[in-house]
Amino acid sequence: MRLIKVEFKGYKRLADTAVNVDGRLIAFVGPNEAGKSSILDALLWLRSTDELPTSALTRGRRANSEPVVRATFMLDEGDHEALVDLQLPTLPTKIVLMKTAAGSVHLTLDPPVGWGTDAFRLLSHTLDMLLTDHTDVRA
Questions:
Q1: What are phi and psi of 69, to 5 degrees?
Q2: What confidence tier does 139 reach under pLDDT thresholds 50, 70, 90?
Q3: For residue 68, what are the domain limits?
Q4: Distance between the two ends of the chain, CA-based, in angstroms?
Q5: Would residue 76 count as lying in a domain?
Q6: Of the four listed, 58, 68, 111, 121, which is most buried by Cβ atoms within 10 Å?
Q7: DSSP-assigned states of every residue in 37-85
Q8: Which residue(s) pair with 67 in the sheet?
Q9: 139 belongs to a structural domain
Q10: Residue 138 covered by a domain
Q11: Which phi and psi (to 5°) does residue 138 adopt?
């Protein structure tokens, strides 16, 4: 699974922006206080179970049920092999993980999977795959 896009709506200086990170080498370049470290902080927060501290919300934004950080992952062959036991009618190609300021995590699959399957098992398995340390995030 590889991260291909991260979207921000009210995380620190990242009021409303998106970053495509689908490449072999990703570099965040900009002046001080532009939000480079905020991108990495947001990815770490996305993997945590914590609520977002009020100080990390963009000025003027209030905590609500809207996602603050949204990460899109492209599934690879190994991910599909891990999902095969769930006997889904179609295998998802992308997973979008979203987190609200209150710490609620939401997950969508693309293409959507028929919810006639064991939804709890699928969501639990997918979240476990996403939150397991597959990446090396360094500031």
A1: -130, 135
A2: very low
A3: 2-131
A4: 21
A5: yes
A6: 68
A7: HHHHHHHHHHHSSPPPPGGGBPTT----SSEEEEEEEE--HHHHHHHGG
A8: 100
A9: no
A10: no
A11: -130, 140
Task: Assign 134 to helix, strand or coil.
Answer: coil
Amino acid 82: pLDDT: 80
Phi and psi torsions of 83, nearest 5°: -90, -10
Q: Which band of pLDDT confidence, cut at 50, 70 and 90, is reported for residue 1?
A: confident
Query: Can the peptide bond before residue 111 be classed as cis, meaning omega within 30 degrees of 0?
Result: yes
Q: Give the CATH number, domain containing residue 6.
A: 3.40.50
H/E run at residue 98? strand 94-100
Average the pLDDT over 64-70 and give the result: 89
Please name every residue paired with 94 in a beta bridge, in sequence order, or none if there are none: 74, 110
Domains held by the chain: number: 1
Residue 137 lies in a domain: no
Distances in whole angstroms, Cα of residue 83 to Cα of each of 2, 77, 116, 121, 135: 16, 10, 16, 10, 20
Amino acid at 111: P
Q: Is 92 within 8 Å of 75 (Cβ atoms)?
A: yes
Question: Cβ of 99: how many Cβ atoms within 10 Å?
Answer: 24
Among residues 55, 57, 53, 47, the alpha carbon closest in space to that of 8 is found at 57
